[in-house]
């Protein structure tokens, strides 16, 4: 069992009459990746600001390896690396010069600085472009250099805020490979993103925040068990779905939920929530026996996005 590296205890942060963070608590273990999720305005940015020691909580505390994280606690803040959403790079300096600067800010000099630069460039696969300026880099390469800068002082905890915004699929996959390697080395990661599929791939624990409160703090498997439907079947039919057909489907074994949307002409699309993926085949057989003519069908597992929307609602957030 991994030890607790970070403990967040009953954090509260208020701006005027608005409580942005309201009693938030969670833990991060060594070698664990925690996905920190929430709609716009949920309080994530305020929480990240406090985790980094940039904001002081009004109440509660943050403890990293036995030391409190606070704006003035320079020693413990050195154990944290931050990858901000906005690129923190100097375009007119080479990648090598950027990393020398960030390393020097953490007191690295001489051989130790050179060794860290070589290590982090290798970790993000940019060793062959070390003498080029970020101005000549693609968006994905800039994101990877941003990660390298955050790793210069070899932090125990890496906080990543939307680290793949605007990158192509190949660069995104390269970033994932880097983060998974860091986790395997025992680094703890906190990962915030609006891309649910990224969190599904990377996180072994998920914290969902809304209105400043924790709605979920558990493993992906535990989160999935919150939804009655564990799989989905979408069937497009060439003809209307009469009430008797829909009632028969709702009564079929394994069917948890059912919705019906109109297609072009007289066709409909049936979205069927299933107790398990194995229920899809019997349902399809029943539809054929009922005389239905499927134009197309597809199965899927319920996703983290389904769970997120179930917990936080589907209303548009500004």
Helix and strand topology:
Elements: E1 4-15, E2 18-29, E3 33-37, H1 44-51, E4 59-64, E5 67-68, H2 74-77, E6 80-83, H3 95-105, H4 110-123, H5 139-151, E7 157-161, H6 169-184, E8 188-192, H7 196-202, E9 205-210, E10 213-218, H8 220-224, E11 231-237, H9 243-251, E12 255-262, E13 268-274, H10 280-289, E14 294-301, H11 304-312
Parallel strand pairs: 3-8, 3-9, 6-7, 7-8
Antiparallel strand pairs: 1-2, 1-4, 4-5, 9-10, 11-13, 11-14, 12-13
Helix pairs in contact: 3-4, 3-5, 4-5, 5-6
InterPro entries: AAA+_ATPase (IPR003593), ABC_transporter-like_ATP-bd (IPR003439), ABC_transporter-like_CS (IPR017871), P-loop_NTPase (IPR027417)
Protein name: ABC transporter ATP-binding protein
Organism: Massilia aerilata
Question: Could you walk me through the main structural features you see in this protein, from its secondary elements to its overall organization?
Answer:
It is a single chain. With 318 residues, this protein is α/β, with parallel strands linked by helices. The chain has 2 domains: 221 residues, Rossmann fold; 71 residues, MTH889-like domain (Alpha-Beta Plaits, 2-Layer Sandwich). The strands form 3 sheets. The chain has a 6-stranded mixed sheet. A 4-stranded antiparallel sheet has the order 2-1-4-5, with helices on one face. Strands 12-13-11-14 form a 4-stranded antiparallel sheet, with helices on one face. A hairpin with a 5-residue loop joins strand 12 and strand 13. The longest helix has 16 residues. Keywords: ATP-binding, Cell membrane, Membrane, Nucleotide-binding. GO terms for molecular function: ATP binding.
């Amino acid at each position: 069992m991994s030890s607790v590296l970070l403990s967040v205890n009953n954090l509260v942060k208020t701006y005027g009459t608005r409580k942005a963070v309201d009693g938030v608590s969670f833990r991060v273990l060594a070698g664990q990746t925690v996905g920190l999720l929430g709609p716009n305005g949920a309080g994530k940015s305020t929480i990240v600001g406090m985790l980094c020691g940039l904001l002081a909580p009004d109440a509660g505390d943050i403890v990293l390896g036995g030391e409190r994280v606070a704006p003035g606690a320079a020693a413990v803040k050195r154990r944290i690396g931050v990858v901000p959403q906005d690129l923190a790079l100097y375009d007119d300096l080479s990648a090598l010069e950027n990393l020398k600067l960030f390393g020097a800010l953490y007191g690295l000099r001489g051989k130790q600085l050179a060794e860290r630069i070589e290590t982090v460039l290798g970790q993000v696969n940019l060793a062959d472009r070390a003498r080029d300026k970020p101005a000549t880099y693609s968006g994905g390469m800039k994101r990877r250099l941003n990660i390298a800068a955050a790793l210069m002082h070899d932090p125990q905890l890496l906080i990543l805020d939307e680290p793949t915004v605007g990158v192509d699929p190949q660069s995104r996959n390269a970033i994932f490979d880097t983060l998974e390697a860091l986790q395997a080395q025992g680094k703890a990661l906190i990962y915030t993103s609006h891309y649910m599929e990224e969190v599904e791939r990377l996180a072994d624990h998920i914290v969902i925040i809304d209105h400043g409160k924790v709605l979920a703090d558990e493993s992906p498997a535990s989160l999935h068990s919150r939804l009655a439907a564990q799989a989905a079947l979408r069937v497009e039919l060439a003809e209307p779905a009469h009430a008797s057909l829909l009632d028969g489907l709702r009564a079929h074994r394994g069917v948890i939920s059912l919705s019906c949307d109109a297609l072009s002409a007289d066709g409909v699309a049936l979205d069927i929530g299933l107790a398990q993926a194995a229920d899809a085949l019997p349902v399809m057989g029943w539809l054929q026996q009922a005389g239905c003519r499927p134009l197309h069908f597809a199965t899927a597992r319920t996703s983290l996005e389904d769970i997120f929307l179930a917990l936080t609602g589907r209303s548009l957030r500004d």
